[in-house]
Every structure is written in C-alpha cells, then in structure tokens.
UniProtKB/TrEMBL annotation:
Catalytic activity as recorded in UniProt: N(2)-formyl-N(1)-(5-phospho-beta-D-ribosyl)glycinamide + L-glutamine + ATP + H2O = 2-formamido-N(1)-(5-O-phospho-beta-D-ribosyl)acetamidine + L-glutamate + ADP + phosphate + H(+)
GO cellular component: cytoplasm
Taxonomic lineage from the root: Bacteria, Pseudomonadati, Pseudomonadota, Alphaproteobacteria, Sphingomonadales
Protein name according to UniProt: Phosphoribosylformylglycinamidine synthase subunit PurS
Classification via InterPro entries: PurS, PurS-like_sf
SUPFAM superfamilies given in the database record: PurS-like (SSF82697)
Record Gene3D superfamilies: Phosphoribosylformylglycinamidine synthase subunit PurS
GO BP terms, alphabetized: 'de novo' IMP biosynthetic process
Length: 85
C-alpha cells in the first residue's frame, strides 16, 4: 500500500520558505497569489496489513514535529500513483 503523508506548518507559525516563494512568484510577475505556505510530502510504501495506529505513531514520533506541524495521511491505491515530470 502507498501512503502520502502531508506535513504543513500550523497556523500562526512563521513560514519563511513560503514567504520566499511568494516573493519569487511576485517578482516573476504572477498575479493573484495571496499567500504561500510551504510543506512537505512524504511517500511511504508499506505492507497492506499495517495498523493505522502504527502509521499515526510514525507521524507523531518522526515524520512531523507536532509542536509546530500538522499532518494528514492519504492511503493511495498502488495503481493510482502516477509521476509527473
């Protein structure tokens, strides 16, 4: 089974990377972007029978700093995963 773990900064936590991206988009003359928040995507391939509690524990103990970050878990069917260039 494939998992996608989305890790984002909590509201109220400063996001210098997001600010830099926003500034770069403005300097490239892209209009209409109001705010940018940067995060990370972690893709895992795990056994089909892995417990949801184990997945949560991975996120809590290693993949996300839960003091300043939120995370969301998405289970993806193996055939649904596509890569883009």
């Amino acid at each position: 089974m494939k998992l996608k773990i989305y890790v984002t900064l909590k509201n109220g936590v400063l996001d210098p990377q997001g600010k830099a991206i926003h500034h770069a988009l403005e300097s490239l003359d892209f209009k209409g972007v109001q705010d940018v928040r940067a995060g990370k995507l972690i893709e895992l391939t795990v056994d089909d029978n892995i417990a949801d509690a184990d997945i949560e524990a991975m996120c809590e103990k290693l993949l996300a700093n839960t003091v300043i970050e939120n995370y969301a878990i998405e289970k993806v069917a193996d055939s649904a995963v596509q890569e883009t260039a």
